[in-house]
From TrEMBL, chains A, B:
Glycoside hydrolase family 31 TIM barrel domain sequence ranges: 216-530
PANTHER family per record: HYDROLASE, PUTATIVE (AFU_ORTHOLOGUE AFUA_1G03140)-RELATED (PTHR43863), MALTASE-GLUCOAMYLASE (PTHR43863:SF2)
Pfam families the record matches: DUF5110, Glyco_hydro_31_2nd, Glyco_hydro_31_3rd
Domain (Glycosyl hydrolase family 31 C-terminal) ranges: 539-623
Keywords: Glycosidase, Hydrolase
Molecular functions per Gene Ontology: carbohydrate binding; hydrolase activity, hydrolyzing O-glycosyl compounds
Family: Belongs to the glycosyl hydrolase 31 family.
Entry superkingdom: Bacteria
KW Hydrolase (keyword) present: yes
Organism: Chitinophaga rupis
Protein name: Alpha-D-xyloside xylohydrolase
Length: 704, 704
């Protein structure tokens, strides 16, 4: 098996490529690494089906230098390579020529590389990915700093024309000429994982498959999640649920924020019965309305918590908000944490959690120091620095093992993840709120096996609300996070007015727009569900940058505001107040989702998108199954499907049919439906052991 | 001698306090530390005169933990201690409760602690300073993160009222309760210097005296420095010089920017004779007009430079702007660098340099990577990280040794300094430009033996120009940096219009205001010169925070926009467009510099300050010697002094008399003049070996 090879003499590995994944090692690697915490076995079957690949460089040319200061790795870079990755980067996309420090932080800071989800891995458009297997704070110089060499005098000015502004002065002139330099202070040795292609997408697939394959959310995870105001009580929650159902606004998950607990900063994990006198009844009432309940929490254990005593000797030496920091690097600690949640909370009807505050404090603000210092120590021996890079992964892992034990999938919200988290059904979110950043994080998330939800909170205008909603609908998870809003933001986007019940004059019309956009989401669920299955099964990220699919098209190298959804859809969200934007469409023909207008690709268009539309383009040759909208998702209630065949040729599409909520699909308990459009006629073929149930194909519509 | 003690078993040192300076050590300290590069011997005589002091904590309670990750130092903190320092901090002042990472960076980044001048030292208002003797990037948790302890349940909420905004959520609640935690990743051992008081000021004095005492600039260094546009040629420089003299605007130094060299990014250190056909003649012409010449450069050696070959094997492995990074940690490298400058440049009539770009690139911008990576290696063995923390110190040291050899003082501009730089006659400057920050950096600089010049460049209005000029006049060095301005900014503050020769309608009037403010500076020079002598001789910083003089006054703990100048002046610069500001005056009576109006202290006043005034307050009991303004400074031309006696009592003041330009004062070749105001009569007494020359006392004026 692959895992066995990791500590073998790596010189051997230079010569052989095991399923396109090589490990190079030197010195004494750390005991605590991302690889140590990979939660799943590699998906060998899918790895074996990927084509063989040669790397564009000789791995023997990777130089690892170990000094007293740490390890420095130098990896060849081609002159025209484009680099991506490093986790869910917020304000950068194409990393070539940049210095990137992917470190867990609760917000970006300048353009350092800080992120909720640092992954020490980059992907090249030349068809490979490289992961530095470390939890230490590491800096990547992505060709930004060439080494000194014999310099031709011709390189130099000699005829000095001094710059007359700092911008002119500091324009980078030397970029794109150096190798990748990776600086890992403190390391006494290092392992390097190389995931081969031949293409970028396959390199990403290998990484995801090595980590256990991507996520398949429960079907209900693909619906709408609405988080209510933090101080709501049981009655207010139920009233809000009734509003959704009465107004026929689709919703699948209701989230409760800190107020459900007796203490929340730090956490007691105990229901506040003053506000929620009958929590089990609440959960049952909501489930009856087909609403799954998700509870907010963080990992820091308040002295009031029943978990305090059991974890007191199993925590770090620095508290957070006076609460314990459990040593999640120790499986027994995870088990204790999980067992309590299972018995006390989950068994009472709770479907999922929002795991907050696991993304350090804000390293950029001297007075925001609530999280544990990097110098913290833990009983397991992991350092505070390493813990920060893996804290979300390990925190989530407590719950993941419960899901596996109960054979029940879920779809969490989480504020930190790291490397090898592809299999974790948890979606990142953030307190930051720039819409452009929120969009950029969608294509960025796809490089490194993570998912991102550009949640909607307040807005500055109806237009902003609608544009943000469109983005949320076209993402891995559609979340409205109204933790400080009494009314849904479509009734009043302004926080103060919302909480004063001063609703918009156009509230009804705006509600109708949002309903329409949510309905689009529900229509897309069968397509999305299959795209996620491709993620789980083959490692293909359901949301990914255009460059992943078009690595040779230089026009997409810096496109960070469009992305692919599944095999055939291209999303191009709008921001600001404009009703148009520029959209680059790669080679081939494309169709507007709303108007079915056809565009020839390899060009940039100015595209209009109305409020009641989605800025989506469909590749010619696509068979797109769209469902009739439903108010909630239930695998037992069949989707009524209309199949749209875009373009003149034949086309196929897949649909996944399973129970929608267990891991049985991993044992082959699913059907794969192949929809075919051939010579103007549609047909479907079902393969698999299950009874038909999830889909009814109603109509076939050709679009030319 | 003190230096001998450093590597002695430090347990001994617990028991004995050598001149109030203790060193605690554990493990194997780094070979490269700030202490290794202290340029001067301690000023033993002055150290011996400081009073004995006991620390407010037991040094035996300092805990040093060495783990595989590095060193963690924990130092007791009193509940109500106020902490300051960490070098020239830009956007923080009172550091208590903050996390501070004093790392060399060319601009601030959030509130991380990045600075042009990182000093790993803090000063407590309880009367001591602690320096961590490291060049590693170090994080100080200034009581921000208390360790975990048995937590009373009462500490916790139990009655949860959830926050409803992120601000409310993340308000620091736990601050001010922990010890000082110092995180030094990578270190295998550490030395800690403790400078005792008994008061804050004396702790700072001990630090400065240990490092060789403060700076005494040449007399001309206290005048006005004007830097001309980077693309000026020889004629344009001379024309500008004539403007100053014709218009009777005081000036002592002219600075040339990059255009004087044949190559500047990186540097050739060779005159561009196309623009400057006769550089020696230019220097002579300017000197004849009593203008010293200062040349811009940085340390990165262009292949065109005569220094390239000699330094090629003496440099780091990463270039900067294709230029060598000399290994200044090696004294031979410094000697080569210095010798070239001496022969080729200084000997041709150049008085000083502006040492630019030694403050790393911008760690906050992924695409600003021009400087050498932290992973760089150097022949001496110093790491890139350590080099960044000491690069300015070592760069300047090349020149300092020349000054000493030639027995010629100078006053440089520099963009980076670090610990133990108190004796270096070099003043920090910056590309950042927030006026509030510029003011805050003045009191901050005084905690750690550094000087700061809040230079004036362009402005947004005449008011801004005047307020900035007032601040510059009340600082360690008055610099107008017109490197991108064709005309002086007082003729046109706007860059584009300035360079288009479109001067202000009120140019003449504004010029008159600036002339008046410059004249104030010239009037203050005798007072300032003596304040600097106190710095050199006793280690008392000439510019310092109010808390240094009033450590018991809680009202000044957070005052970062007022500061002391010398013994008796309090400066309170104005910013923005207001003509008034709030000024807190500590206990005692104070007098307005302009109106002589009297204020009772321990109160806050709203103060008006006109354009032709200085926002300065004079402590009652002060004898203030003011000179008649002169167009330039020359120790051979006596100052005509009027002595103002503020307040009803007797008063004294000091004046330093020396040659104004050599280090002879260090061998006692100076006079100290004591001015006395006693019972309504003034008198002067001169002690010292020199002939009288610098001062003529003209008048005595009582102010009541």
């Amino acid at each position: 098996m692959l895992l066995v090879c990791l500590f073998i003499n790596t010189h051997l590995l230079y010569a052989q490529s095991l399923l396109g994944i090589q490990v190079i090692s030197k010195g004494t690697p750390d005991a605590f690494t991302p690889q140590r915490f990979v939660p799943e076995q590699p998906v060998m079957a899918a790895l074996q089906q990927l084509p063989a690949a040669t790397l564009p460089f000789n791995p023997a040319d990777i130089n690892i230098r170990i000094t007293e200061r740490g390890c420095v790795v130098e990896i060849p870079l081609g002159a025209d390579e484009q680099l991506y990755g490093f986790g869910m980067q917020i304000n950068s996309f194409n990393q070539r020529g940049l210095r990137v420090r992917p470190v867990t932080n609760d917000s970006p800071l300048g353009n350092v590389g800080y992120t909720h989800a640092p992954v020490p891995m980059y992907v090249s458009n030349k068809g490979y990915a490289i992961l530095i297997n470390t939890l230490r704070y590491t800096t990547f110089y992505c060709g930004s700093n060439p080494r000194r060499r014999a310099i031709a005098a011709a390189d130099s000015a000699g005829n000095n024309t001094p710059a007359l502004s700092t911008d002119a002065l500091y324009m980078s002139k030397d970029q794109d000429k150096g190798n990748m330099i990776v600086d890992i202070p403190g390391a006494r040795g290092i392992e390097i994982y190389i995931f081969a292609g031949p293409d970028m997408k396959q390199a990403i697939q290998r990484y995801n498959l090595y980590a256990g394959g991507g996520v398949l959310p429960p079907l209900w995870g693909l619906g709408i999640k609405y988080r209510v105001k933090a101080d709501f009580n049981q009655q207010q929650v139920l009233k809000m649920a009734a509003y959704f159902r009465d107004h026929k606004i689709p919703c699948d998950v209701f989230g409760l924020e800190p107020g459900w607990q007796t203490a929340s900063y730090s956490c007691s994990y105990v229901w506040n019965t003053k506000k929620f006198p009958q929590p089990e009844q609440l959960a049952a009432d909501l489930r009856q309305q087909h609403l799954h309940v998700n509870l907010w929490e963080h990992a820091f254990v308040n002295p009031l918590s029943p978990l305090y005593k059991p974890l007191e000797q199993r925590s770090g030496d620095f508290p957070v908000w006076k609460g314990l920091v459990p040593d999640f690097a120790d499986s027994l600690t995870r088990n204790i944490f999980a067992a309590y949640h299972d018995t006390a909370i989950i068994s009472k009807g709770i479907s999922g959690f929002k795991l907050d505050e696991c993304d350090n404090s804000d390293l950029g603000s001297a007075d925001r120091t609530w999280s544990f210092p990097e110098a913290s120590t833990f009983p397991s021996g992991i350092t505070g620095e390493q813990m920060h890079q893996v804290f979300g992964n390990l925190y989530f892992r407590s719950f993941y093992q419960l899901m596996q034990q109960h054979d029940q999938r879920s779809y969490f919200d989480i504020r930190q993840l790291g490397a090898f988290a592809s299999a974790y059904p948890a979606v990142l979110y953030s307190d930051i709120y720039e819409h452009d950043d929120y969009i950029r994080m969608i294509p960025n998330s796809g490089f490194c096996g993570i998912l991102w939800s550009p949640e909607v909170r307040e807005s500055g205008s109806v237009t902003e609300l609608v544009r943000r909603t469109q983005t949320a609908v076209m993402s891995a998870q559609t979340v409205f996070n109204s933790w400080y809003l009494k009314n849904p933001p479509w009734l009043q986007y302004n926080t103060a007015r919302n909480n004063a019940d001063s609703l918009l004059p156009e509230a009804t019309q705006t509600e109708q727009t949002i309903r329409q956009l949510f309905n689009f989401r529900m229509q897309l669920v069968p397509y999305l569900y299959h795209a996620f299955f491709q993620y789980a099964h083959n490692g293909i990220p359901p949301f990914r940058a255009l460059v992943v699919d078009y690595p040779q098209d230089a026009n997409v190298y810096n496109v960070d505001n469009e992305y692919m959804i599944g095999e055939s859809l291209l999303a191009a969200p709008l921001t600001g107040t404009d009703s148009v934007r520029a959209v680059y469409l790669p080679a081939g023909d494309w169709y507007d989702f709303n108007t079915h207008r056809k565009y020839s690709g390899a060009q940039t268009y100015t595209i209009h998108c109305g409020f009641n539309q989605l800025p989506i383009f469909i590749k010619s040759g696509t068979l797109l199954p769209l469902a009739d909208p439903v108010p909630y998702l239930d695998a037992a209630q069949p989707f009524n499907i209309t199949c749209y065949a875009f373009g003149p040729g034949n086309a196929t599409a897949g649909l996944l049919e399973d129970d929608g909520e267990t891991f049985a699909y991993k044992q082959g308990k699913y059907n794969l439906i192949t929809l075919s459009w051939k010579n103007g006629h549609g047909s479907m073929q079902r393969r698999g052991p299950l009874k038909a149930g999830m889909y009814k194909i109603r109509k076939w519509v050709p679009v030319l």
